[in-house]
Amino acid sequence: MMHRSAKATVLALLLVSFSCDQGLAQELWADTFLLDVYQGSYRSSVAKDLSNGGYELSGGETVDFRAWYSPTLPDLTVLLLKQVSPDLGLIWGISTGEKGEKYEIDQSLHLGFIYQHNPFKNAVLSIKASYPLFGTMTEKTCIADYASADTEEANLGTYTVNCRLANTLISPEETLDYLVNLRGETDAKISVSFSFKF
What pLDDT score was predicted for residue 57? Predict the structure, then answer.
């Protein structure tokens, strides 16, 4: 699996390589338009869902999941459209990723296209697709100390656990099976639309 900093380097090199040659840069930016700018993603919404809940530790301290799964800066996506022909445009762009205390979403590179076709007069059929590369969401683990109330708080051991499930009846080892690991392609999109003017 490629490390976050390595992915960021790959994305930076891709963008810099376009700008190294002035002629290539001019060709790239010719007929290129801002298509969309938005915050959040499906992976961001998963992190938001994980922020609901909490539990109380044996010492009486309350754990609130919101502190674990709230990003310092939300995932921001910028998409550009390069018009190749009157009917075809290429989509490309980047997402910044986001990070919370117990999860991380890597940066991603978006590629896609928009195609329009006029099947007959006053009718337009449009197909739009985009696919993110990289952008994996991973959930982090916690170290938990377990004790038994039946033996005067005797220590049962220290385990690496899924932070959210550390206070459940699931065994510490099994909680790791429920760690969230989502690839960026979960945010791949395709849409088809048809319009007709009377």
Answer: 83
